[in-house]
Amino acid sequence: MRPGRRWPIRARTVVQAARDYALSWPVVAAAFTSHARAVLPAQPEPVQALGIDEIRRGRPRWIPDEATGIWQTAVDRWHVGFVDLSGKQGLLGRAEGRTAQAVIDWLADRDQAWRDAVQYVAIDMCTIFKSAIRRVLPQATLVVDHFHLVQLANQTLTEVRRRVTVTHHGRRGRKGNREWELRNRLTRSAARMRGEHVDALLDELSNLPRVIGAPITVAWNTKEDLLDLLATARTRPDREQVRDLLYRFYRRCADADLPELQRLATTVETWWPEILAFLHTGITNVGSEGTNRVIKTIARDAYGFRNPGNQRLRTRCATTRRARGHLDAR
Question: Would you place residue 330 in the very low, low, confident or very high pLDDT band (cuts 50, 70, 90)?
C-alpha cells in the first residue's frame, strides 16, 4: 500500500482496492494481513467485564477416520468471541470451536495478571462457557444475559400455544385461529403496550375456548412475571422485592401444572445465581451480540471465507475499536 495513505481495514475496502489499483487478490490480501497485524495489539489490555458468545460461520466439515471408519470433525464452523464490555477495546479475540477447551485455551494464553483483573463474565445460558470460566477464572462472577431469558420465556409461551392448538384442533394453528393471530402480541412485553391494548389482549384470550385460552393466559402471565423480575435490574432492588417477585413466578409455574412452565422454572432455578448477578450489576452481553452482527455483515461483504484464520483477522479489524476506521499504513 502507498506510504502515507489512510486505509480503513474492512473486507469490502480490500476488494475495492484490488479493483482500483488493478492488483491481484493475493497481493492485496497479503498487504492487508501485514497492515492488520501491525495495527492490532498483540495482547488485549486488562478488562473488568468480559463478554463471551458464539457465532456459526457455516456448516462443519467431516472426514472419516482411516482406523475406525468413524466420521470426525475436520473444521469446526463455530467461533467463540471475547468482547470487552467495560472498556473501549471491542472484540479482543476469537477462538475456533464451541467447546470448553477452546475457551480455556484462549484465556490461558493471557497472563495471570490479565485473568485476575476480570471480575464479571457475561454469557448466555451455556454450560460449556460456565464450566470453562469456573476452571480458568474462578474469581469472576458469572452473569446471565437477560435477553436469552426473555427469549426463553417467549419460546415457552409459544410452545404452550402450539401444543394446546394441536390438541384442540388436531393440527397447527393457521389464519382463522384467533390464538395464532395473536401470536405476535403475546410475545410483546406488557410494559411496552398501552393499558387498553393489554386489556383487549386478555379479553381476546378469555373469549377463546377454555382448553386453549386458559393455558395461554397462564403462560402469558408467567412470562410477564419473569419480565417484571428482570426489570428490577439497575434499580438496586432490595432482597424482599426480589424474593416476592421470584416467589410469584415460581408459584404461578407450580399452580399451572404445565410441563413447559415447569421446565422454565427449573431453568431459572438452575441459573438463579447468575440471574441474581444480573439483577445486582445490570451487566448484559449486548456488546457481544452487536459484534456478532458486524461479523455476519463482514462475511456477507466478502461472500464468505474459506480460511477461518483470515475471517478472524478481518472481523477483528472491523470490530476492535482501537483499529476501527481510518488508520495510517505502517
Answer: very low
Closest Cα to residue 121, out of 92, 150, 99, 101?
92
The CA distance from 28 to 33, in Å, is: 9
268 alpha-carbon distance from chain centroid:
17
Q: How far apart are CA 268 and CA 272, in angstroms?
A: 6
Residue that wins the pLDDT comparison between 69 and 208:
208
Cell triple for 205: 384470550
Q: How many CB atoms lie within 10 A of CB 27?
A: 12
**C-alpha cell, 1:** 500500500
E strands present in the chain: 6-8, 49-56, 61-64, 71-75, 78-84, 91-96, 120-123, 141-144, 326-328
Give Cβ neighbours of residue 254 (< 8 Å, ≥ 6 apart): 262, 265
Cβ contacts of 33 within 8 Å, gap of 6 or more: 310, 313
Q: Which of 90-104, 115-129, 175-189, 304-318 has the lowest mean pLDDT?
A: 304-318
Residue with cell 473444521: 75
Nearest to 177 by CA among 155, 199, 203, 205: 205
Residue 214, SS3 per DSSP: helix
The three three-digit cell numbers of residue 55, written as one number? 457465532
| 130/133 Cα distance (integer angstroms) | 5
H-assigned helices in 47-143: 100-108, 112-117, 127-136
In the predicted model, what is the mean pLDDT of residues 231-243?
Answer: 94
Lowest-confidence segment of 6-10, 244-248, 258-262, 291-295 by average pLDDT: 6-10
Question: Residue 292 contacts by C-beta under 8 Å, 6 or more apart in sequence?
Answer: 53, 55, 81
Q: Could you tell me how many residues make up the chain?
A: 330
Please give the model's pTM, rounded to 2 decimal places: 0.81
Burial 255-286 (b: 16+ CB within 10 A, else e): ebebebbeebbebbeebeebbebbbbbebbbe
Contact 153, 286 (CB under 8 A): no
DSSP element (H, E) containing 325: none
